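Can't paste images in this forum, so I'm doing it all in text. The chain is below; anyone willing to post the predicted structure tokens underneath?
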Amino acid sequence: MKIATYNVNGVNGRLPVLLRWLKEAAPDVACLQELKAPDEKFPQAAIERAGYGAIWHGQKSWNGVAILARGAQPVETRRGLPGEADDSHSRYIEAAVGGLVVGCLYLPNGNPAPGPKLDYKLRWFERLSRHARSLLDHGAPVVLAGDYNVMPTDLDVYKPERWLDDALFRPEVRNAYADLVAQGWTDALRALHPGERIYTFWDYFRNAFGRDAGLRIDHLLLSPGLAPRLRAAGVDRQVRSWEKTSDHAPTWIELAPD
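Text version of the structure:
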């Protein structure tokens, strides 16, 4: 079973790229972030023609998350995180698909930092951690996939010294990620590639992709019962070189049958 996460940076503007990648990579489950489209503008018909059922949680111009399933219909189990009733950002959606619980998330960026945006990011991280703990307590196999907007270690950023004050790399953000993983989650890509410098994002500016000046901010976390089924993990970095593509590349895992 192949599960991927992909920040599409505008699902309608990048639709040809998304459809090409779905055809070539054929993930069984794809978690999308930054749809930048309200619910009624999600390209459901095109996604269905590509062979995927979908659920989505959209928002005009910003945010937005979706879960696609090849040849199946994801069954929505949650829309939004608990804990902040007035939070209007569309950043989390969850579904049962293929015998798994899949949470698709788009964690806040948090810049400029320090400030209100970083405070919101850390509160959102706390809410995610509480919900993640509740998922573990239920004991079902779970994947939490998405754009976490955090580089966990120096190995996950091309020049760590340049990012020390950035909200994607500040100590309190990395600590929040470490605390989440310490609940018992496995960072799938890092588990199979412990010493490799692997990136999932390259800025559009200053020829970042050409220079391989990247960041690893897209992660797939596996619950303890699911981690032994992990067989492969990687990044479809060639997608970042396509015309009119996102600044992220799809990141994926392969799981052995249960």
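The chain has five helices and 14 strands. The longest helix spans residues 116-138.
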